Amino acid sequence: MKRVAVFMLFGQSNAVGHGTCLEEKDKIKEPLKNVFGLNREPNQSFDTEKLKFTGYTSYGMNLAETQDNTYSIANCLARRWQSDIDNGIDLPDLYIIHIALGAQGVYGMWSPHRPKKLIPGVQGDCDISMYPLTIHILSLLKKHFEINELEPDYMGIHWRGGEQETWQHTSNLEGRLKNDYLTIFNGMREAIGCNAPIILHRMPFVQVMKNADPTGKCFDSMNYINGLFSELANEMSNTTVFDVRSCPFYDESTPDYNILRCDLIHYQGKTNDWVAGEILRDYKERRK
């Protein structure tokens, strides 16, 4: 069987790459030869029984909201991966599953208790029950790989979320949020059929939280959620926390830390591209 790498990206607006428009030179217009994704047209459905992977492009490959050609980690990783293969670096084909929707967290459309609903479109217009959609798509992966005689190497379930919950008081998060995250992540692993790595992305939005709420409520909630990510990493097997503050151009002396956009909550394109580079570097190290 042919071994392939599988990258999965879920969450909110920073998983979408919200507001970061790809420069023309970075757009992936022609389908890549060695990187594949799930286009919305045939795959964004609760009814599909067979996944249809196609050559990856930087548009149409997020199965949630319609916001294309962004510097999402998925788009950045796809471009880097194909470039390495084109330059003679020994890498397997890459399969990308990208499902993310801005402004919607575990208490919104990502709620594991939400009944199935799927109205596609841009953020603000779409209404998608994210958890059941994700579970449905992931449950079809095993069949797809078996039929095509492929052996998947799961790089990880990357979760870039938590922003919505920062607007909740910590008393509303304690206990309930952890149980919901456990339901989501254990459900994803069960759907895939293996103990795939889980990577939780720590939130560094200190300044915007302090500006938005001088009482400190949001700041406390953000710290609580970041602490919960660390707690989950300690308690769940094969789970880690990715800290973007390790970025070489991170600078605490500026409000945007040199990694955030002017709204102080969404990452700059260069930040997402650096994260993609780290994911690729870690994968190469693991293969040695």
Explain the overall architecture.
This protein is α/β, with parallel strands linked by helices and 288 residues long. It has a single domain, classed as Rossmann fold (3-Layer(aba) Sandwich), CATH 3.40.50.1110. 36% of the residues lie in helices and 16% in strands. The strands form two sheets. Strands 3-2-4-1-7-8-9 form a seven-stranded mixed β-sheet. Strands 5-6 form a two-stranded antiparallel ribbon.
In short:
The protein is an alpha/beta fold. It has ten helices and nine strands. It starts with a strand and ends with a helix.
End-to-end Cα distance: 20 Å
Helix content: 25-40%
Structural class: alpha/beta
Q: How many strands, what sense, and barrel or not for the largest sheet?
A: 7 strands, mixed
Mean pLDDT across every amino acid position: 95
By CATH, the architecture is named 3-Layer(aba) Sandwich
Unreliable stretches: none
What is the C-level CATH assignment? Alpha Beta
- The H-and-E topology, N to C, reads as EHEHEHEEEHHEHHEHHEH
Topology at a glance:
Layout: E1 2-11, H1 13-16, E2 35-38, H2 40-43, E3 53-55, H3 73-86, E4 94-100, E5 118-119, E6 127-128, H4 130-139, H5 141-147, E7 150-160, H6 170-173, H7 176-192, E8 198-201, H8 206-212, H9 217-235, E9 239-242, H10 269-287
Parallel strand pairs: 1-4, 1-7, 2-4, 7-8, 8-9
Antiparallel strand pairs: 2-3, 5-6
